[in-house]
Write a structure and sequence with these properties.
The complex is a heterotrimer of chains A (268), B (240) and C (238).
Chain A lengths: L1 H37 L5 E6 L8 E2 L6 E2 L1 H13 L2 E6 L5 H6 L5 E2 L7 H6 E3 L4 E2 L2 E6 L15 E5 L3 H12 L4 E5 L2 H9 L5 E5 H10 L5 E8 L4 E2 L2 E3 L3 H16 L2 H10 L1
Parallel strand pairs in A: 1-4, 1-5, 9-10, 9-11
Antiparallel strand pairs in A: 2-3, 6-14, 7-13, 8-11, 8-12
Chain B lengths: L1 E10 L2 E11 L4 E5 L6 H8 L7 E6 L2 E2 L7 H6 L1 E4 L11 H11 L5 H14 L15 H13 L5 E5 L7 H16 L3 E5 L3 H7 L2 E6 L2 E6 L1 H6 L4 H10 L1
Parallel strand pairs in B: 3-8, 3-9, 6-7, 7-8
Antiparallel strand pairs in B: 1-2, 1-4, 4-5, 9-10
Helix pairs in contact in B: 3-4, 3-5, 4-5, 5-6
Chain C lengths: L6 H5 L1 H10 L1 H8 L1 H34 L3 H16 L2 H16 L4 H27 L2 H9 L4 H31 L11 H12 L2 H32 L1
Classes of the chains: A alpha/beta (268), B alpha/beta (240), C mainly alpha (238).
């Protein structure tokens, strides 16, 4: 038992030290990278994305390439700013830690600009205005607003503002049950198999899912809410150079009509 | 008492028994000798159907052991078997090794089974070892417990499959002594053995087997002093 | 490595604790200890029920696999092959979203237990089969020669000896299973890993959150292996 306790203690200490060291490292890294940044020689952007969020990012069945609205936008920015773009597919919840560790330069993944996130990363200018919508099974009646969700079983993706909205409903009525999944697709599956009453998620994604996958089984109800929801591209806190590059690129493609072309391609 | 008719047994393409016929009487002690690979152990194991013969019949007291619908579990209760490697149950004490079958199969009360078992252990000279586990016994002691275990079911016949072959030489005597006593009490016994001295002294009849055939049988005097078959002669010249 | 302490501060435990409390990640972990505890409890529940299912299925499948009846043997082999030959993660999703809803209306936790139990059963079956086959052939012969039926010989002679042989690999399987229950997080079961994911998604304190999750898993697996050692020792002295 003694041996076990001491082992445990060592394990906890080791983890604790790693953690402390990790925090220190994260704070220091930008400082170390700054000299490079001043030279203004970004030639390649490593971009993180959760490539399971159609129509913003997904994998092309036929070619295996990453496609979607976000993918087109970041590629267009890359072309406009003459930098190479490499997409790295990862879990949505891993994007911000990956930025903090410097594993990726920025992310484009239908990520809403929120106060909490802004505390740990910097966001580019907004490139898309979204908002949340409630989706229910086609034969469900009587759910239209957030209030109707009280006491129901809700499904959402971990770490999204949709999940935050569900948690907020639960805070008002503890009888509400919130089921969270790694990917939004599983939340929709749960809805279809009857394990959830509603999915709360970004409107464009839900609209795309209903249109392409389940027009006879799932329907959107009510109005778009949290319509002040804007997508931005996060970069490491203090990484002004990447931020500038993204904002300049975004301005360029908006100015020359590329953005409108891409928008039309995916949403009209 | 035991009648064997035209017994054939093969393992795959290897023919081990090529038609054995014999007749063993009540209270008779038969010793089976022969070179290794001659089929003596297989013959013994066919009698209680640890090996299934392909052809031929075996009768015990007129009941056909080899019949497809024979109640082999009941028949086996009447035939005790002692193995070369003892096969004691290592997770049970000496006493439990002996009482297990009477309690579980004959539904004997534990008290009665214990009484009988202690008597049997005394008989094989191990009355003081009843609560010992097999791992703490010598080879000779293990084999004596194994004999007691087989006797606990009060069998009509005892089958011995080279009971002393894996013992250290100094322990062979104690086991043979127990078997000798058993023979004197009138137990019907079939003993596969390499102990020629035992076969000569205790056996009523000796079978000589080679290449799956019962080559020669007779009294110990006939077999050992005046063998007729050249195979028997050659075998005995090597071992005696 | 900058630990955020000066050397003298290391000497005084209280100063270290004070310092830790200033770190956001540490606060996150401490404030969420009850959540971790509930997650760990659920992990333990799923593990225990899955072990129970796995043991029963494993014993049946092991005997089925050794059966002389062809149909029974093929069913057992198919079951074992499927659950050992495909990833548990995929089985969890397939069972939860695909197969179990066709049969009855199961909660995510029930589905998780069924999936982990079915998966574990396949591994337990192979462990038990190996254990039974490791018992000396002479034991079965000795028991049969006394007049025991195959079943009696199994129960009184083979199983007790196989039991000792299978304890260490079984404990190992239970430890694997406990860790593998982290996969049921995918179907929204709020066990330890799911608790970690949720917390991590809202705080981004990867190292602290996953570090704490590790410690909880470690405590549970260590407890299991101590239990295993103890059982082994007790059986050895018997």
């Amino acid at each position: 038992m003694k041996k076990f306790l001491s082992l445990l203690l060592i394990a906890m200490l080791a983890i604790g030290m790693l953690a402390v060291a990790g925090c220190g490292g994260a704070e220091e890294e930008p400082a170390q990278q700054e000299p490079a940044a001043e030279e203004n020689t970004i030639s390649k952007l490593v971009v993180g994305s959760e490539t399971a969020y159609a129509p913003f990012e997904m994998v092309d069945d036929a070619t295996g390439d990453y496609i979607g609205f976000d993918m087109d936008i970041i590629k267009a920015i890359g072309e406009a700013m003459e930098v190479e773009v490499e997409i790295r597919s990862m879990e949505f919840t891993a994007l911000i830690p990956a930025l903090q560790n410097g594993q990726i330069d920025c992310a484009i993944s239908a990520m809403s600009i929120t106060e909490e996130r802004s505390q740990v990363v910097d966001f580019s200018d907004s490139y898309f205005d979204a908002g949340l919508i409630i989706a229910v099974a086609a034969d469900t009646e009587g759910i239209e607003t957030l209030d109707d969700l009280k006491g129901k079983v809700l499904a959402a993706q971990i770490g999204t503002i949709g999940a935050d909205a569900c948690v907020a409903v639960k805070a008002e009525d503890p009888a509400t049950e919130v089921k969270t999944y790694d990917h939004v697709g599983e939340a929709f599956m749960e809805l279809q198999k009857g394990g959830a009453d509603a999915v709360v998620n970004d409107m464009p994604v839900t609209a795309y899912y209903v249109k392409t996958e389940a027009s006879d089984k799932v329907k959107m109800v009510g109005e778009v809410f949290q319509a002040d929801d804007h997508y931005g591209m996060p970069v490491q806190k203090g990484d002004a150079e990447t931020l500038t590059l993204l904002n300049e690129g975004l301005a360029k493609i908006k100015a020359d009509g590329t953005y409108d072309e891409i928008y039309a391609k995916w949403f009209e | 008492m035991i009648v064997v008719n035209n017994l054939h047994k093969s393992f795959g393409k290897l023919e081990v028994l090529k038609g054995i016929d014999c007749h063993i009487h009540q209270k008779e002690v038969v010793c089976v000798i022969g070179p290794s690979g001659s089929g003596k152990s297989t013959f013994l194991r066919c009698i209680n159907r640890l090996e299934e013969a392909q052809q031929g019949k075996i009768f015990i007291d007129g009941e056909e052991v080899t019949a497809p619908n024979a109640d082999i579990n009941r028949i086996r209760q009447e035939m005790g078997m002692v193995f070369q490697l003892f096969n004691l149950f290592p997770h049970k004490t000496t006493l439990e090794n002996v009482t297990l079958a009477p309690i579980k199969i004959k539904k004997m009360s534990k008290e009665k089974a214990d009484d009988i078992a202690i008597g049997l252990l005394r008989k094989v000279g191990l009355g003081d070892k009843d609560h010992v586990f097999p791992s703490q016994l010598s080879g000779g002691q293990k084999q004596r417990v194994a004999i007691a275990r087989a006797l606990a079911m009060q069998p009509k016949v005892m089958l011995f499959d080279e009971p002393t072959s894996s013992l250290d030489p100094e322990m062979v005597g104690e086991v043979l002594e127990v078997m000798k006593d058993l023979a004197h009490e009138g137990m019907t016994m079939i003993v596969v053995t390499h102990e020629m001295g035992f076969a000569r002294e205790v056996g009523h009849r000796v079978f000589f087997m080679d290449e799956g055939i019962l080559m020669e049988e007779g009294t110990p005097a006939q077999i050992f002093d005046n063998p007729q078959n050249p195979r028997t002669q050659s075998f005995l010249s090597k071992v005696l | 490595m900058n630990l955020g302490f000066t050397n003298t501060e290391w000497i005084f435990g209280t100063t270290i604790i004070d310092r830790l409390h200033e770190i956001y990640g540490f606060q996150v972990v401490v404030n969420n200890l009850p959540n971790f505890g509930m997650g760990a409890w659920l992990t333990l529940e799923i593990t225990v029920f899955s072990i129970a299912i796995g043991m029963v299925l494993g014993l049946i499948a092991a005997l089925g696999r050794m059966s002389k009846i062809k149909v029974i043997k093929s069913i057992a082999v198919a079951y074992i092959d499927f659950f050992r030959g495909t990833p548990l993660f995929v089985q969890i999703l397939l069972l939860y979203f695909g197969i179990i809803p066709l049969i009855f209306d199961a909660s995510p936790i029930q589905s998780a237990i069924i999936a982990c139990g079915l998966n574990s059963g396949a591994y337990v079956a192979e462990i038990i089969r190996a254990g039974i086959q490791a018992v000396d052939k002479g034991q079965m012969e000795a028991a049969r020669s006394l007049g025991m039926t195959h079943g009696q010989a199994m129960i009184h002679i083979i199983f007790p000896q196989a039991f000792k042989i299978v304890i260490p690999p079984l404990i190992n399987e239970f430890i694997m299973l406990l860790k593998d229950t982290s996969l049921v997080s995918a179907i929204s079961v709020g066990e330890l890993t799911h608790t970690g994911k949720m917390l991590y998604a809202s705080t981004y304190q990867a190292v602290w959150v996953w570090g704490a999750v590790c410690v909880f898993y470690f405590i549970m697996t260590k407890a299991l292996s101590i239990l295993g050692d103890w059982t082994e020792r007790r059986l050895a002295t018997e």
